[in-house]
Amino acid sequence: MRRALPALLLAATLALAPATTSLAAESLSQGCVVSTAQLSWGFKESFRAYIDSTIANGEWTEAGGATYANATFGWSSTQGNLDPSTAKGVVDFPGSVEFTGHGGVLDTTISHPVLLVRSPSDAVLVLDVSGPSMEGDQIDVRGAEFVSIDLSGQNLTPVDGVISIVDAPTALTAAGFAAFPDYPAGTAFDPISAHLDVGDCDLVGATIGSPPGWLLPVIGGGVVVVLAGVAALVIAVRRRRTVSA
User: Fold this and answer.
1) Sequence-separated (6 or more) residues with CB below 8 Å from residue 11
2) C-alpha torsion sign, points 186, 42, 71, 108
3) Which pLDDT score, from 0 to 100, does residue 126 have?
4) Residue among 182, 121, 119, 120 nearest 146 (CA)
5) Of 167, 133, 138, 172, which Cα lies nearest the Cα of 46?
6) Residue 56, CB-side half-sphere exposure with 13 Å CA sphere
7) pTM of the predicted model, to two decimals?
8) Tens-digit pLDDT profile for residues 179-234
């Protein structure tokens, strides 16, 4: 009996360890991979109109995959992650737009937009901004939280595997003003839209068919219960043998 009980204890531990390890790995992979994404944003209509006017006599140039059509700039991405259960995630978009005017006096480039979702009602668009301001100051800001995005009217539930943000209001932040001082913080910029393909990812951020993350502590607790039971059995047997002696 002395040899059997340690063997039983070891067997109980090894039998449950693989399941626990597997569930731990599943919990670490929580969140939906964004396989493809599209972002549409006009920046600011009045600013585009100013650039296009005879006053600035300017233009804008898209590069690195950015596009322009129907009064909006577009970016595409295949890199991102978003957990619909907490509405937190980040999607990186390559590409840039350069605004020029006044014979080169105005020359501002916005690039590498990042959609940062913080909650079901709040997100920001992060931008790199570079070039001389109208006052002649050289600006080179990386990762500025440029505009806030109001998601309060949006439904972030995936439909056919796609999370859609449609015409969400945006406003220039304090960091956006520091990077683009042509408008005061709080100024409304153009609404933003995005479509994020998360495929067969369910609402808890796990691939459909995988064990939900909340099972981990339950099964982990089961390991403790089983081991505690084995330990109690060991103690009971030892006491019985002592009494018999």
Assistant:
1) none
2) positive
3) 98
4) 182
5) 172
6) 19
7) 0.71
8) 999 999 999 999 999 999 999 876 554 444 343 333 334 334 443 443 444 344 44
Tell me if 165 sits within 8 A of 129, measured CB to CB: no
Q: How far apart are CA 243 and CA 230, in angstroms?
A: 20
Report for 2-6, 81-85, 184-188: range of highest mean pLDDT:
184-188
- pLDDT band at residue 132 using 50, 70 and 90 as cut-offs: confident
Residues 6+ apart with CB under 8 A from 61: 97, 98, 100
Q: How far is CA 241 from the centre of its chain?
A: 60
At 6 the pLDDT is 37
pLDDT at 53: 96
In Å, how far are 25, 152, 173, 216 from 28, measured between CA atoms? 5, 29, 33, 11
Q: Sign of the C-alpha dihedral, residues 197, 201, 203, 206?
A: negative
Q: Which amino acid is at 129?
A: V
| Cα 96 from Cα 63, distance rounded (Å) | 5
- The secondary structure of 114-151, three-state, reads EEEEEECCEEEEEEEEEEECCCCCEEEEEEEEEEEEEC
